Amino acid sequence: MDPAIVFGQVLRALRKEAGLTQEQLGFNAHVERKFISLIELGHNQPTVRVIFKLAEALGTTPSNIMNLVENSLNSQKK
Fold first, then answer.
1. In this structure, how many other beta carbons lie within 10 angstroms of the beta carbon of residue 13?
2. Is the pLDDT assigned to residue 31 strictly greater than 80?
3. Residue 37's domain spans which residues?
4. What is the pTM of this model?
């Protein structure tokens, strides 16, 4: 599966786990809600700077987000 799609799925899961709407996450990470939506759909890919902002807004680390993406991709290969 495409890593951009998996990143979006992971971001959506973390956002929902944090109890945030796309609007709230966008506000907290200083990005537009539409951009959050496009990331979650796998249409846009965030920059490293945005990944750090998203992680902070979600109360996690960029490495945790990327580990979740990597683990999801690896489990889909099996």
1. 13
2. yes
3. 3-77
4. 0.93
